[in-house]
């Protein structure tokens, strides 16, 4: 059944029908399409377009259509251009011309905008749940490895000792920002477009606020021309997904490095690892590599969407149909990745001995040595220079800073004394950094407690 055709003297070309049909991918909007149609039928009854009996039979027919779509018995017809056409076609099949009346005062333009808003809102909620689950997993991992010290890096060069828990928590904080972005996208989608008609607003005196409430929106769109052409909420959702993916990708890269023989810090459970068809010894972190790879795909979805929007004249244009596959693909990818990262992270074990090796014997507390000299009266630039000289001395003598004797140090600077070795031990270095947000065990423990509190507030409030 076509929703148009009266003014045409020819049927559309078969190739064109195939090219323009969206039902193959927008069928997944059906629960929202039915919800919106039900609400619109209620509004039509309120303004007298539908009799009580018509509205009742439309309601019952919508139940039947929903059941068929739920259990897979719904038969799509070749003429179903999109899910909206398919639902209306079936309504008419079930109850006759009264089924078509539900289209009165409504266009597919405000209808698809409404369906998409509801879909995006649910998608943001589901993604937030996925993010929180991963945060909880990282917090557990941080809590159970609270004593483990590793080498922190800048420029991928050993920099200063940090707690592994501190490193894991950094991802919890990145994800906290993702939750804000998801909430923001949800907020952008939280406005009812129904009642906008094709572009100029419906001519029926429907109570839009009532409709909004029935569909869970807290307000109604204020400009019908904007409402039918707006997909900013879709881009905002995919931007939030891209941000999640970028953080998952960074976490994946970190895990891949930690699991390498070169780092040797972490081991992934066999159930989340793959082998090589050629090299019998290989144990590869393919899951994390796929997550890193899928990040490119989700960012690509975002670029695609933004580019579709660029240069669209007012108001609805068919280009907007391209929003769906991009959004669905980004959403499916992010949900799959959140699940895989959470489940595989939960199986990771860390090697305490190897972690200790990475912080002993080198120069990882050189900054502490400079700070020590500052505590003994040197200004920092001078302390930095002198420490650099000591490092250079060690490099040429093939030893680490802690292997220098006090005598050797004093040859370079008088600003050192007996206490220096204790001061620049890895433990002391970590413990001194008790500033809020620092890597000292107490500071990290309060970060964990705070993050746990936030998480239980959010989960409790969901
Ligand atoms: N499948 C269309 C879309 O996704 C539905 C709206 C069609 N509207 C129209 N005027 N052709 O955008």
Write structural notes for this entry.
By secondary structure, the protein is mainly alpha-helical. It folds into 3 domains: about 15-105, Fumarase/aspartase (N-terminal domain) (Fumarase C, Chain B, domain 1, Orthogonal Bundle), CATH 1.10.275; about 110-350, Fumarase C, Chain A, domain 2; about 360-440, Ribonucleotide Reductase Protein R1, domain 1 (Orthogonal Bundle), CATH 1.10.40. It is about 60% helix and about 5% strand. It has 19 helices and 4 strands. The strands form 2 sheets. A two-stranded antiparallel ribbon has the order 1-2. Strands 3-4 form a two-stranded antiparallel sheet. α3 packs antiparallel against α4 and α6 packs antiparallel against α7 (about 165-190). The longest helix has about 35 residues, at about 110-145. The protein is elongated, with a radius of gyration of 30 Å. The model has no long low-confidence stretch (mean pLDDT about 95). It binds arginine (ARG). Arginine binds near residues 26, 108, 112 and 321.
């Amino acid at each position: 059944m076509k929703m148009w055709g009266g003014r045409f003297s020819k049927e559309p070309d078969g190739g064109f029908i195939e090219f323009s049909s969206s039902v193959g991918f927008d069928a997944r909007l059906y629960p929202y399409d039915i919800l919106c149609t039900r609400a619109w039928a209620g509004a039509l009854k309120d303004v007298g377009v539908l009799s009580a009996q018509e509205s009742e039979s439309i309601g019952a027919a919508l139940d039947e259509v929903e059941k068929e779509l739920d259990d897979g018995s719904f038969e799509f017809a070749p003429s179903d251009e999109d899910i909206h056409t398919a639902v209306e076609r079936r309504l008419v099949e079930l109850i006759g011309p009264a089924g078509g009346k539900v289209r009165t005062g409504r266009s597919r333009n405000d209808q698809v905008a409404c369906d998409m808003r509801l879909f995006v809102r649910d998608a943001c909620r589901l993604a937030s749940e996925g993010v929180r689950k991963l945060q909880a997993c990282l917090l557990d991992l941080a809590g159970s490895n609270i004593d483990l010290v590793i080498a922190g890096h800048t420029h991928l060069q050993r920099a200063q000792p940090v707690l592994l828990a501190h490193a894991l928590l950094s991802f919890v904080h990145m994800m906290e920002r993702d939750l804000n972005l998801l909430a923001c996208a949800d907020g952008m989608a939280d406005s009812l477009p129904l009642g906008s008609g094709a572009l100029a607003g419906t001519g029926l005196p429907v109570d839009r606020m009532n409709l909004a409430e029935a569909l869970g929106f807290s307000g109604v769109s204020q400009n019908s021309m904007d409402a039918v052409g707006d997909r900013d909420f879709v881009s905002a959702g995919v931007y939030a997904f891209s941000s999640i993916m970028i953080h998952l990708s960074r976490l994946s890269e970190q895990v891949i490095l930690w699991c390498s023989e070169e780092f040797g810090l972490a081991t992934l459970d066999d159930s989340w690892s793959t082998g090589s068809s050629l090299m019998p010894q290989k144990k590869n972190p393919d899951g994390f590599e796929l997550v890193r790879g899928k990040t490119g795909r989700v960012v690509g979805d975002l670029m695609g969407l933004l580019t579709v929007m660029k240069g669209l004249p007012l108001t609805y244009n068919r280009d907007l149909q391209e929003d769906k596959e991009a959004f669905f693909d980004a959403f499916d990818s992010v949900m799959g990745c959140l699940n895989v990262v959470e489940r595989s992270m939960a199986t990771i074990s860390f090697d305490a001995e190897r972690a200790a090796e990475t912080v002993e014997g080198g120069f990882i507390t050189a900054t502490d040595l400079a700070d020590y000299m500052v505590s003994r009266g040197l200004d920092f630039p001078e302390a930095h220079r002198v420490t650099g000289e000591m490092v250079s001395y060690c490099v040429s003598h093939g030893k680490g800073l802690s292997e220098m004797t006090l005598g050797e140090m004093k040859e370079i600077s008088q600003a050192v004394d007996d206490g220096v070795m204790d001061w620049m031990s890895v433990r002391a270095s970590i413990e001194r950094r008790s500033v809020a947000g620092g890597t000292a065990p107490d500071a990290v423990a309060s970060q964990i407690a705070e993050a746990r509190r936030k998480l239980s507030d959010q989960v409790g409030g969901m």
